[in-house]
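Milestone M4 deliverable, item 7.
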Amino acid sequence: MFLQLINLPRTQGLLVLLGAGLLLSAATVQAQAVYRIVGPDGKVSFSDKPVGAANNKVTPVENIESAAPSSTVTLPFELRQVVSKYPVMLYTSKSCAPCDSGRNLLTARGVPFTEKTITTALDAEALQKLSGATSLPFMTIGAQHVAGFSSTEWTQYLDVAGYPAQSKLPASYRAPAATPLVPLPVAAPKPAPAAPTPSATSTPPAPPRINPNNPAGIQF
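Output delivered:
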């Protein structure tokens, strides 16, 4: 597919390219799944294929193309259609000013999004597998990757995807809380302490035999 941007203003030409990118991504990009593999020795690795030894524990990491917020049923029809087609996922970390700016832009515009935090080395490794980089913030709109924060660029991508310029979120909408990209392992419950084994009952000593001629047992 070739696009000829002849006599188009620079901004309009960029929007045409962005639109083509979103359409091509939606039409040709397969869901990018990343799997967390835990070996029998406890070593954790990530792969785009759920393969490994039979005794490995394999669990999928959040799929970037299926990041639509679970509360879409409460959204207006127009917004719900866009969210289901081009869900937005935001990857952030603490003490990251550009991450805060990106989150504020999405919130102010009324864009529902799912936020994943990058805190641990496992989070960073999974992000590397998903995006090919570890720089933050990182955003996906459907299958489209947007690295770094630029208010102008983010706004243009959201415009092309069809997100309303003004918030259409109902007053009752509450954004889901941010969660780690790689869920923290759940500690196995400690087994209950074994009940103490009752000690064997000892046989009480036989009472001393009483001499009928010395019932008090006095010895001289």
